[in-house]
Specification:
The complex is a heterodimer of chains A (about 35) and B (about 170).
Chain A: E1 5-10, E2 16-22
Antiparallel strand pairs in A: 1-2
Chain B: E1 4-8, E2 14-19, H1 22-28, E3 34-36, E4 42-45, E5 54-57, E6 63-66, E7 77-81, E8 86-90, H2 102-109, H3 114-117, E9 153-156
Antiparallel strand pairs in B: 1-2, 3-4, 5-6, 7-8, 7-9
The chains are: A mainly beta (about 35), B alpha+beta (about 170).
């Protein structure tokens, strides 16, 4: 089973709110240059 | 310039990046995240209410101050201050753009005055910035240097292909 992934979410002032599960898909690469 | 978001595992450890495609953008919904460039360097936040003034030098040499940018997920220009990752997100000035709502923008932005910013037919005021961007060398359709910037960079989902400079002081 594929491990769940998360995004770090902030408020509009840039304060960290926490992590949210990422369900948006997209290929995940270690470096954006190859994403 | 492509934008990327960083993904984490359940321990909060980064596992990689994914490109912010239209599908990803849609999936983000209202979530505010940090965008990264192709090198993994942070470009700034996706959504922002900025808390500092931005002095913009206009083509006639005068200046105007922008503040309290409208935070709109999918429209507008982001200008970031790399010193503190604060972001300014300015609305498109493309009044013909689908979904453009000047009343909503003005009510949020307060001091943004399109007439002051626009130059010529500069209602097209979208941008795509990066720290090394040079209007004298980089190719583009025009509007170079109309609004010079010295200390900012950011990312704009350019719909018109117009570019400009912004000054963050």
């Amino acid at each position: 089973m594929e491990e769940k992934k998360y995004i770090k979410v902030y408020d509009e002032l840039g304060n960290l709110l926490g992590f949210e599960e990422w369900t948006g898909g997209g290929s995940v690469e270690p470096s954006p240059a190859v994403a | 310039m492509a934008n990327f978001i960083k993904l984490y595992d359940k321990q909060g450890i980064p596992v990689g990046f994914t490109e912010c495609t239209a599908e990803v953008e849609s999936a983000l919904g209202d979530a505010n995240v940090v965008f990264y460039d192709e090198n993994g360097l942070p470009l700034g936040f996706r959504i922002v209410t900025f808390d500092f003034d931005v002095s913009v030098t206009l083509s006639d040499g005068s200046t105007t101050t922008l503040r309290a940018a409208y935070a709109d997920n999918n429209r507008g220009v982001i200008i970031s201050n790399p010193d503190n990752l604060s972001i300014v997100k300015l609305p498109y000035l493309d009044v013909n753009a689908e979904g453009y709502d000047p009343e909503a923008v003005v009510s949020k932005a307060g001091t943004i005055n399109y007439d002051e910013i626009a130059e010529g037919d500069g209602v097209h005021w979208t941008a795509q910035f990066n720290p090394s961007f040079n209007p004298d060398e980089d190719e583009g359709p025009g509007n170079w240097g109309v609004i010079p910037f010295t200390k900012g960079y950011g990312r704009g989902s350019s719909a018109t292909g117009w570019y400009t400079w912004i000054t963050i002081q």
